[in-house]
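Action item from last week, closing it out:
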Amino acid sequence: MIKWIGRGLGLVIVAGAAFFFGVLPGIVEKGQNGMVEHAPYPVSAEAQALHDRIVIGDLHADSLLWNRDLLKRGDRGHVDFPRLREGNVAVQVFTAVTKSPAGQNYDHNSADARDNITLLAIGELWPVKSWKDLTERGLYMAKRMQGYEAEAPDQVRIIRAKSDLDAVLTARAEGHPLTGALLGAEGGHILEGDLANLDRIYDAGYRLMGLTHFFDNALGGSLHGEDDTGLTDFGRAVVQELIGKQMVIDLAHASPKMAHEVIEMTDQPLVLSHTGIHSHCPVKRNFEDDLMQQIAATGGVIGIGYWADVTCDASPAGVAKTIKAAVDLVGADHVALGSDYDGSVTVEFDTSELAALTQALMDQGLTEDQIAGVMGGNMMRVLGAVLPE
């Protein structure tokens, strides 16, 4: 009897482990990265033809956070390489989320709150050393992307320099379905307070860094933190190193004071990777309009997101209206796409359906040149201006 009880308990433990490690992460992702059910969006022949011939880029997706093979078309989430090809996306920024506070909200978060990513890392069987080390989490996500590049070099190329960007765009112009992947860090806490870790993540392929996420960190204040603090001495040192390494600096989630201080420190184009326009959708998550104009004045771009919290309408028409508001505010040369796909948001179209956004921008009255800039041309200009040779 004891023998059979032991076997039964063993089966229960094995079944529980199989569920926790094999099934639960997928359930969590489906719950976090929602998709509103919809009929196919109508796209005219004119809009599809325009969409097919322009260069498209997206400044922000958190797809590396989830336990999916991005070389295969998934049945959950918003981004993978097959769907990027279907949407004609040339360059996708894949951003590493290394820490997320329990109770995360747009108003006020403590850096000491329980971290949501720890349990996800355990459940998805990330390397044990990454369970408590944020730099190791970033290196693990970079290694996954390196694996995709090694397995499918005809489909994926990590963009580490201008030459990689040029190679991707040239290949696509010649009809090869190559997608450029640019690695970004969502928050300077990936450095664990040690400037030497910037060399480690740079060597792993990171070329974009957001300074904060949903909480204050060693670099300074978050838009959603406990105080509107600016850069710390360490934060200033990091910004100087980012400038020296020719990495893209992302002001998403920074406190307004931090954003102003970064603008004063550098003359390189800055990006705000995923956001909305405050005068169009007046929420704290969206910087005030005057700060948006100052970011654009650096020669940078404002990446418009696809979720309702920042657009007040997440349909293709709603996102297009937000883009039109951005064009009116900062000029068509300073607006880009920043979906926040797979970033624990609910959207109304995934990356395979981006032609619907091209149609919606045409419906908003944007010219073909303006649409080409917003959909990717402006982003490519900034990457070309900042990335190392």
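Closing note: The longest strand covers residues 89-96.
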